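thread from #wetlab-drylab

HS: before we spend reagent money on co-crystallization trials with magnesium ion, can we at least see a predicted complex? here's what I'd submit
DV: go for it
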Amino acid sequence: MSVTPPRLEIRNLVRRFDGRPVVDNVSLKVMPGQVTCLLGPSGCGKSTTLRMIAGVEMQDEGEIYVDGRLICDTVFRIPPERRHIGLMFQDFALFPHLTVGDNVAFGLSGSKDQKRARVEELLDKVGLKRFIDGFPYLLSGGEQQRVALARALAPRPRIMLMDEPFSGLDNRLRDDIRDQTLEVLKQEDAAVLLVTHEPEEAMRMADEIALMRDGRIVQQGAPYNIYYAPRDKQAVAFFSDIN
Ligand code: ADP
Ligand code: MG
């Protein structure tokens, strides 16, 4: 019997700026079909961790694996575009000069028909197929976010990295978009590493939460366990603004 490896595993990742560790020995796994959430206050090292996984920043120590295969350590490095990683960042805007369909097709290879079929499939899943030939400025912020999700998922990444993807959105829209996003991620069988500073978002979306502070993971487990059995006072304080 073979054991399924994690979609993503990072081991003992360290990143220092001016000698100060901002990511300090972080280890983490994301299993297939799961949303793992890296939750912590602003400045604790979440984005730096994601950038190293994406391959746009080098770690000082540690290893990164996708599907059990080493993609990066301190001497070996697969470039970002060959890591099979999808990215969705808050400031990762759509290309304004391309149609919605061409935005989604951007990272795709294959024949024109194959690409069109995949684009239609995804725009259908996010409920925006009617905008396929329109331009991004026609869409609301929430709709643009759904197109960005379709674009990130189009090449069937092995793992999706999402950095505060909903923080630019109106409060009233956010819960709906979170739920729709989860639904699409599930349909696409994606594994996700979601970064957020909002406990509420982690509780709503995560299968597993890793609580991060000052570059370290201080507690890890199912949302229920972290919420009801926080390990220390700072973890309690961090969750106390959920009502
Ligand atoms: P988060 O995403 O959790 O808010 P970041 O990963 O963006 O945190 O930043 C963690 C820390 O690392 C912060 O103190 C930030 O100022 C610092 N930092 C991030 N990038 C750099 C850089 N290129 N040079 C120096 N310091 C940096
Ligand atoms: Mg950040």
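DV: The first strand starts at residue 8 and ends at 17.
HS: ok that's useful, forwarding to the group
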